[in-house]
Design brief:
The N terminus is likely disordered. The chain has a six-stranded mixed β-sheet, covered by helices on one side. It is 42% helix and 9% strand. It is α+β, with helices and mostly antiparallel strands. α3 packs across α4 and α9 runs antiparallel to α10.
Length: 356
């Protein structure tokens, strides 16, 4: 499967490799074991995805699009194995399962579909009614969730550091938004373009949570993955858009490394050039723009970001300055020279990104 521009879909996880690396080095086998197995499984899935895009997937009929404007969800249970997609346990319109994980996955897919449809008139991930598939109970004590270019996959967590990955609805929205990016801007998953890829997923993951809860920008917590960390962890989430670098500070996980401005930009060869780290900068820019405008963040600020993502003008290897410049242009095009333009421009100035 390819997307526009011929770019191949990538394997995207919610928990950054640097977090799992640290856990894998712990002396306690209850912490290190699941982290090592998760890293190994992620490496396998990433390699499998690359091979599939090179040699091609087995020839199968493409999935039928759903009725326009209606979701078509399928939840599968892998039963702690790794062969995807697993056994179907709930389809569109089926009654609730006795398994809360299945129901959370089903509801999260629906919430994501609804936000994109109601706020941006986008019919599913690809804009053409793509069926939404997810697999739950993946592997044993798997500490991650991922979008593999075709579907969502959720681990149950190890119970020590991470809980069930279907708990935070923004995690579901985040990963599915990688699919939206895949079908639109195709941002290369490395360096600043990769950090923008991650940031766009955080932005819309947060907006999906806010939309579901009916929250304004002022009421939202702006956390990504709240509820995912186990009680023993000193932290509140995986990331904070309001205060990057403050999501956790734990003797096992270490301290949240995200910068909020370009002054603290992290140059690293790990994590595809720090895609999960430097995403804190554009994340914070969106938070600043959304809270300056007030009201529902998915409306004006979210609309500007969505316009850029789907404009066809965003280069696959875009830098922060490229994205920022396009948001300024999009704000002016949609809203004129008013408070929206000013809020967007000032947000990027405050995080140290110059618009061109």
């Amino acid at each position: 499967m390819t997307t526009n521009g011929g770019f191949k879909p990538v394997f995207c996880t919610i928990v950054p490799p640097h977090v799992l690396d640290r856990l894998a080095r712990q002396d306690d086998p209850a912490l290190a074991g699941p982290a090592r197995r998760t890293l190994e499984r992620d490496a396998y899935e990433r390699t499998h995805r690359r091979l599939t895009t090179v040699i091609g997937a087995p020839s199968v009929a493409p999935p039928a699009a759903a009725e326009p404007g209606k979701p078509h969800r399928t939840i599968n249970d892998v039963r702690h194995g790794t062969d995807l997609p697993g056994k179907k346990v709930r389809g569109e319109g089926d009654k609730e399962s006795k398994d809360a994980t299945v129901n959370r996955a089903y509801d999260g897919l629906g919430a994501t579909f609804e936000l994109y449809l109601k706020a941006y008139e986008r019919d599913s991930i690809d804009g053409s009614g793509l069926p939404l598939d997810a697999s739950v109970h993946y592997d044993e004590q798997y500490n991650n969730a991922f979008w593999n270019g075709e579907q969502m996959v959720f681990g149950d967590g190890d119970g020590e550091i991470f809980l069930d990955f279907t708990i935070p609805i923004d995690v579901i929205g985040h990963e599915l938004t990688h699919g939206v990016t895949q079908y639109t801007a195709n941002l290369t998953y490395f360096g600043q373009s990769g950090a923008l890829n991650e940031s766009v997923s955080d932005v819309f993951g947060s907006l999906i949570k806010q939309y579901t809860l009916g929250q304004t920008a002022a009421e939202a917590d702006w956390l990504i993955g709240a509820g995912l960390l186990a009680p023993r962890v000193t932290g509140k989430a995986l990331r904070s858009m309001k205060e990057p670098g403050t999501a956790y500070d734990d003797d096992v996980l270490g301290k949240d490394p995200q910068p909020a401005t370009m002054d603290d930009y992290v140059r690293t060869g790990r994590d595809n050039g720090g895609v999960h780290i430097n995403s804190g900068i554009p994340n914070h820019a969106f938070y600043l723009a959304a809270t300056a405008l007030g009201g529902h963040a998915w409306e004006r600020a979210g609309q500007v970001w969505y316009d850029v993502l789907t404009s066809g003008r965003l280069k696959q290897d875009a830098l922060f300055a490229d994205f920022a410049t396009l948001t300024v242009s999009a704000a002016r095009s949609r809203y004129g020279d008013g408070e929206e333009l000013e809020a967007v421009r000032k947000a990027w100035e405050r995080v140290g990104v110059r618009t061109l």
